[in-house]
């Protein structure tokens, strides 16, 4: 009897672990790319995931009527109807915000299979801490999801990705509505509206550059290239691109890497060099870049003398894979490069731009 009991414990434990592992294998790989397990035995990884999930719990933002004015610092969550579907976004207002001093606005777009809450997780991306340090307002829109839960959301960035692309979600219209809504809720400097995004979110930032250059002064894409199907910006716009040379999802030299999701849900990604070349041409910049940062394991090159006094900048890390440089390690096999901070480089770049979002497009050189 005792022998049977001793036998049952490891057998039941093994069955439980097998069931959990099986359920994890059913998750989209894009989600596991953002929230995957690290190394070690399965038991160790499951234990680490439990610990991580406890650490990841955040104070939920205040839910409010989307028409209400925001009159104090804090975190807020809103739901609006757009194109027949409920869409959500959350806003972080820093402590130093004052209605008498219009603030810059950063729109931060999560990766494919992610969520606005995950992008707002300061443990991984640090954007809320950066907002507090610099005094800008940051808004985290939620991508399009066919599920009522809103999980596994993606962005319609042109040729990518998944349900948002396949159902032709009007994500540009949604983000335009979010920017207008936040600008009515808070005192926002309309000349300092920026967008950033990770992976599929970075791709969406490029679509915003193509279709909302009259709203955004600059965008910064991290680990996501320009996969738009058409691009006719109303004005020149500053572009920053940050990418790891060893990215195994959105490969530096083009194509979907071995760690990418099912090819039917993504695309044969445009390369980083082709993306930069496109925007250098689009903005009529001097094709010879200047090295503006060089440190072991990373460098940044800037293309200047562009129309409208904008610029195009590329920052490359040698390591880090598909991640947010300077951030903390997600549940994946590769830790982000710490040779530079995406947040620091990005905000320095944004502050250096002097392009009013309402400027008129100039004729090409």
Automatic annotation (TrEMBL):
<keyword id="KW-0964">Secreted</keyword>
<keyword id="KW-0858">Xylan degradation</keyword>
<dbReference type="GO" id="GO:0045493">
    <property type="term" value="P:xylan catabolic process"/>
</dbReference>
<dbReference type="GO" id="GO:0030600">
    <property type="term" value="F:feruloyl esterase activity"/>
</dbReference>
<dbReference type="GO" id="GO:0005576">
    <property type="term" value="C:extracellular region"/>
</dbReference>
<dbReference type="InterPro" id="IPR029058">
    <property type="entry name" value="AB_hydrolase_fold"/>
</dbReference>
<dbReference type="Pfam" id="PF00756">
    <property type="entry name" value="Esterase"/>
</dbReference>
<protein>
    <submittedName>
        <fullName>Polyhydroxybutyrate depolymerase</fullName>
    </submittedName>
</protein>
<keyword id="KW-0624">Polysaccharide degradation</keyword>
<dbReference type="InterPro" id="IPR043595">
    <property type="entry name" value="FaeB/C/D"/>
</dbReference>
<keyword id="KW-0119">Carbohydrate metabolism</keyword>
<keyword id="KW-0732">Signal</keyword>
<keyword id="KW-0378">Hydrolase</keyword>
<dbReference type="InterPro" id="IPR000801">
    <property type="entry name" value="Esterase-like"/>
</dbReference>
């Amino acid at each position: 009897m005792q022998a049977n009991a001793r036998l049952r414990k490891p057998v039941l434990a093994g069955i439980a672990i097998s069931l959990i592992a099986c359920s994890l294998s059913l998750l989209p790989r894009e989600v596991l790319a953002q929230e995957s397990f690290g190394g070690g035995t399965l038991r160790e990884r499951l234990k680490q995931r439990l610990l991580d999930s406890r650490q990841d719990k955040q104070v939920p933002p205040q839910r409010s009527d989307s028409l209400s004015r925001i009159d104090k610092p804090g975190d807020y969550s809103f739901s609006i109807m757009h194109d027949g579907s409920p869409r959500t976004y959350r806003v972080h207002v820093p402590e130093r915000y004052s209605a008498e001093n219009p603030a810059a606005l950063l729109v931060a777009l999560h990766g494919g299979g992610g969520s606005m809450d995950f992008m707002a997780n300061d443990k991984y991306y640090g954007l809320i801490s950066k907002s507090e340090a610099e005094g800008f307002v940051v808004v985290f829109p939620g991508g399009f999801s066919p599920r009522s839960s809103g999980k596994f959301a993606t962005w319609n960035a042109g040729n990518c990705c998944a349900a948002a692309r396949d159902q032709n979600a009007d994500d540009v219209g949604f983000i335009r509505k979010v920017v207008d809504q936040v600008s009515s809720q808070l005192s926002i400097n309309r000349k300092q509206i920026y967008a950033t995004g990770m992976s599929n979110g970075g791709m969406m930032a490029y679509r915003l550059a193509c279709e909302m250059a009259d709203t955004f002064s600059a965008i910064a894409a991290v680990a996501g290239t320009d996969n738009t199907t058409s691009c006719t910006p109303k004005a020149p716009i500053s572009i920053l691109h940050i990418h790891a040379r060893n990215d195994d999802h959105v490969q530096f030299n083009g194509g979907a890497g071995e760690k990418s999701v099912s090819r039917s849900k993504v695309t044969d990604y445009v390369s980083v060099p082709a993306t930069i070349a496109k925007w250098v041409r689009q903005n009529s910049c001097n094709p010879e870049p200047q090295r503006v940062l060089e440190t072991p394991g990373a460098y940044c090159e800037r293309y200047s003398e562009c129309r409208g006094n904008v610029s195009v900048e590329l920052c490359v890390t040698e390591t880090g894979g598909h991640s947010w440089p300077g951030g903390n390690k997600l549940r994946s096999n590769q830790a982000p490069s710490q040779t530079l901070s995406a947040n620091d480089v990005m905000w320095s770049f944004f502050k250096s731009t002097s392009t009013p979002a309402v400027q008129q497009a100039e004729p090409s050189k």
